[in-house]
C-alpha cells in the first residue's frame, strides 16, 4: 500500500501539505508488515518517534508519523489498548515562550537530517549566539524536552529528537533555521 498526497496513493492524505505525493509504502514481507521510506519523502517517516531510513518492521500499535499526520498501525487483531483511540498532539508555536522559541531556533539552526554528521547546537553555542548563560539555556532546554515529550529518551538522543519534533510539528521551519542570529537586548 502506498501512502501520500497523490490521488493515486492507496492511502491518501490530502489535508496535510507536509506529506509528500508518494511518502511511504506499507508492505507485507513474509509474515511481517514493514513501512518503507527509501528517500521517498521530503519530511521523513517516523515510527514511534524514531525516524526510519529504508524500512522498519511494524508491530501492532506502532505510531507512524508522516509529516504532521499520525497513524496507528494494527495487524487486524487490536488489543484492548489499541481499541482506545489516542490523539497525538504535537506542540504549536503558541505552547512556547519567546525565550524558548529563540533557544529552539538556535538549537535547530546547524542541524540537517539529510546530511551525515550534523548535530544540533550545543548549550554553549546557543548561549554564545543568544548572549545568555549556559545555565539559562539548560533550564529552557529541560522545559523544551518536556514540552516536546522527549525527556524520557537517553541523553544522547534528546537533542536530535527535539529538533526533529520541532521541525515535524511546524514550530520551526527551514526559513527559521536559516535566519540570521537574533539579537536579544
UniProtKB/TrEMBL annotation:
<dbReference type="InterPro" id="IPR000253">
    <property type="entry name" value="FHA_dom"/>
</dbReference>
<feature type="domain" description="FHA">
    <location>
        <begin position="1"/>
        <end position="52"/>
    </location>
</feature>
<dbReference type="InterPro" id="IPR036388">
    <property type="entry name" value="WH-like_DNA-bd_sf"/>
</dbReference>
<protein>
    <submittedName>
        <fullName>FHA domain-containing protein</fullName>
    </submittedName>
</protein>
<keyword id="KW-0597">Phosphoprotein</keyword>
<dbReference type="InterPro" id="IPR050923">
    <property type="entry name" value="Cell_Proc_Reg/RNA_Proc"/>
</dbReference>
<dbReference type="Pfam" id="PF00498">
    <property type="entry name" value="FHA"/>
</dbReference>
<dbReference type="InterPro" id="IPR008984">
    <property type="entry name" value="SMAD_FHA_dom_sf"/>
</dbReference>
<dbReference type="InterPro" id="IPR016032">
    <property type="entry name" value="Sig_transdc_resp-reg_C-effctor"/>
</dbReference>
